[in-house]
Amino acid sequence: MDVARRVLRRSLLKQVTEIVACSRYSSKSPSSPTNESLTGSQKPLSFPKEVHKERVPRIGDDGFAVTLMGAVKPKDDQIFHAMGSCDELCSFIGLAKESAHENGHTYVEYLKRIQTLLIDISVAISNCSYSCPSGTSITPVLPAISPSPLSIKGTSFSKRHAAELEEWIEEYSQSLPPVEHFVIPGGGQVSATLHVALSVCRRAERKVLPLVRDGNLDSEVLVYLNRLAEFLFVISRVASQADGAIESVYTPKSSPSTPN
Questions:
Q1: Full-prediction pTM beyond 0.90?
Q2: I need a surface site. Which of 3, 157, 231, 256 has the fewest CB within 10 A?
Q3: How far apart are CA 15 and CA 7, in angstroms?
Q4: Per-residue pLDDT for 7 more than 90?
Q5: Cα 135 from Cα 6, distance rounded (Å)
Q6: How many CB atoms neighbour CB 174 within 10 A?
Q7: What CA–CA distances, in Å, run from 65 to 11, 126, 145, 185?
Q8: In angstroms, rounded to a whole number, what is the distance separating the alpha carbons of residues 247 and 184?
Q9: Helix, strand or coil for residue 183?
Q10: 8 Å CB contact between 144 and 42
Q11: Are 122 and 87 in contact (CB under 8 A)?
Q12: First-to-last C-alpha distance (Å) of the chain
């Protein structure tokens, strides 16, 4: 707590504003909107040019980070654990997506859609406004971001997203033989990567659960992640089938004999 107060005493609001401005707006992709095309709160924060010339003290050096709501929290806060797991899941799905695209698999667009929703979930998690210790919260300082299904004003998540996954699960399950044994991760590069994504998805569920249980995050996020894990398992089997790989199943081994 003392560390947090020291951070705030060092003109935290000014530092965070400059840091965010540097990291988000010091470079611009060809598709990024120009300042002239933005109005009102959409315009990025302005920052002094001298910021580029010298190192700005970073609150991250003290083990803190800022949420989209402008709350300063330690990096091991449950919000960042949940966000980190969703980010990692999105990355592994991206890895699987690229391999699936190279192999001509049919579900690549579904994976793209999932990545978009995972980013929305991360935004919703960062918008969580559960009570934090006195002295560790500041006024929101981040600029407006592009409109998202999960706006910065709320953390709602539509039921239709989980329903969409259920439709995809039914669509692809029809071409698969029934599961009679535990499936061992593998079955080709794409399938193995999807199994990793599945494991990370289960972790994301565990990290999101406390936020949902305490009423700080829409329960539909948890439903979606649970359904997503099922979809990833189905698609991992589809990937093995599409690549002509043999699906390995778990066969219990007898206990080794004890020497006399």
A1: no
A2: 256
A3: 10
A4: no
A5: 10
A6: 7
A7: 15, 11, 18, 36
A8: 8
A9: strand
A10: yes
A11: yes
A12: 61
- Of 28-32, 74-78, 178-182, the range with the lowest mean pLDDT is 28-32
- Asked if residue 157 lies in contact with residue 88, where contact means CB atoms within 8 angstroms, the answer is no
Q: What contacts 105, CB < 8 A, 6 or more positions away?
A: 190, 238, 239, 242
| Cα–Cα distance measured from residue 235 to residue 107, given in angstroms and rounded to the nearest whole number | 8
Selection from 88, 109, 115 nearest residue 207 by Cα: 88
Distance CA 210, CA 227 (A): 18
Res. 248 pLDDT band, cuts 50 70 90 = confident
Whether the Cβ atoms of residue 197 and residue 191 lie closer than 8 Å to each other: no
Q: What is the C-alpha separation between 2 and 104, in angstroms, rounded?
A: 55
Burial label, 182 (beta-carbon count in 10 A; 0-12, 13-18, 19+): exposed
Report the distance separating Cα 199 and Cα 229, nearest Å.
8
Whether the Cβ atoms of residue 80 and residue 58 lie closer than 8 Å to each other: no
Q: DSSP label at 259?
A: P
| Location of structure tokens 């980190």 | 84
Q: Strand ranges (DSSP E) for the chain?
A: 64-66, 72-74
Q: Compute CA distances 182 → 89, 229, 237, whole Å.
A: 22, 15, 12
Q: What is the pLDDT of residues 106-120, one digit of tens each?
A: 999 999 999 999 999
Question: For residue 138, which of 46, 25, 11 has the smallest C-alpha distance?
Answer: 11
